Amino acid sequence: MRSQYLAAICLCVTLAWAQEPGLPDAGKAPPDPIAVMAAHLDLERYKATIKGLTQFGDRRQGTDRNRAAVDWIEAQLKSYGCSNTERIHYDYQPPATPAPRNAAAQSQILGPGGSRRRGTRIPDTANNDPMKQPDVKLRELNSQPSAPGPREEVYCTKIGTAHPEEMYIVAAHMDGIGWGEAANDDGSGTALVMELARVFNAPDVKTERSIRFVLWNNEESGLNGSRAYVEQRAPLQGKESPAGSGKYPEPKWLGMIQHDMMLFDHGMPRADGTLGPTQRPEADVNIEFQSSAKFAGDAQTLAWAFEAANEQYASDYPATVGPHMTNTDSAPFQDLVPAISLRENQRGAEIGAGWDPNWHQPTDKYATYNDADFRLGLNAAQTTLGAVARLVGATLFTR
């Protein structure tokens, strides 16, 4: 009888302790670690990172302002704890004559990447006239022309604990054109990748596989930075160096995820060429793969994994999947590894038809966009964080 009485007391005490406010409830599942990580993505921080990038103007490749931006990005990555930063070095010599625009670029119906344009189309020419920038200080900041020669781009790596020899590449391009601030193209994607580097490199985050965060240079001149990376690093994949060290300077690529223009989804141009002044209610994150790529099937599977992550972790805007990825830094990877891109709109059918009037224009400035625009970029960040965290086996731990 005494032993039964003591057992009853112990049971009551145990139940009371479990129900005590602030103490863990044994009946509840632990919080989703990915949701906890996603909660560390903050709209104001994302905006501040974009704002920080705009201090270097359009960051045109081959200029002092571009080189200063690369230095600033590296310093920020180190401050986040992604301290193993490295740089790709390459030489860029512009072609003697620009490549002619292909038939898709000139067509009113066909778009790049196999897409089809519909509705009103606005010409998509890049601005090269400095006098179209009314802000005198910004015009002066952007005045140094690009010069041929050495180029650099920076990356850092979250090293996996179980499979350091495998990695996903999460990337955006940091250079711009147009005599603005390149706030959206591609400050929005660069800031997104930097914010993901910050969250994944928090001291309580552990990943089974590695993640490399890369900020390409020379995208606007023809994807030269990403092409240089592929040429230099592809042969090194999965090789342990030094032998027996457990270190892999270039882990095997499992997937490449590019982010390019994340903010502006105001809909199709009207018949008079104008667009809506605010983000459309049905705005979405566009996830694209290239249906003609060697790894199209695996890339499509990867894209749908990102759509599923959007369903669970994105706070405001949904995601859609399309087969016409084109004209961005995922292209050099698409026949080597599953590759996708995330954007504000479909690149070929919509951006290429004038859905973003600030693209490569003096108006691509931080002040052009409002919180509804910035929130679309934040939702893309939530989408990528959720998907990549699942793919690399991210968990939280306490020391």
Q: Which parts are unreliable, with pLDDT below 50 for 5 consecutive residues or more?
A: 1-24
Strands of the widest sheet, in order across it, are 1-2-5-3-6-9-7-8
Q: SSE order in H/E notation?
A: HHHHEHHEEHEEHEEHEEHE
Q: In what range is the share of β-strand residues?
A: 15-25%
Based on DSSP secondary structure assignment, what is the total number of beta strands? 10
Gross geometry: globular
The rounded Rg comes to 23 Å
Query: Helical amount among residues, as a percent range?
Result: 25-40%
**What is the average per-residue confidence, as pLDDT, rounded to a whole number?**
92
What's the total helix number?
A: 10
State the end-to-end distance: 44 Å
Question: Helix/strand-derived class?
Answer: alpha/beta
Give a quick account of the main beta sheet: strands, pairing sense, barrel closure: 8 strands, mixed
Structure, briefly:
This protein is an alpha/beta fold. The chain contains 10 helices and 10 strands. The longest helix is centred in the C-terminal third of the chain and has 22 residues.
Walk me through the structure.
This protein has 399 residues and is of the alpha/beta class. 33% of the residues lie in helices and 15% in strands. It has helices spanning 2-19, 33-38, 43-54, 64-79, 103-106, 136-141, 183-200, 224-233, 296-313, 371-392; strands at residues 86-92, 149-158, 163-173, 205-206, 209-216, 252-259, 285-288, 319-322, 339-343, 395-396. The strands form 2 sheets. Strands 1-2-5-3-6-9-7-8 form an 8-stranded mixed sheet, sandwiched between helices. A two-stranded antiparallel ribbon has the order 4-10. Helix 7 crosses helix 10. Mean pLDDT is 92; it is low at 1-24.
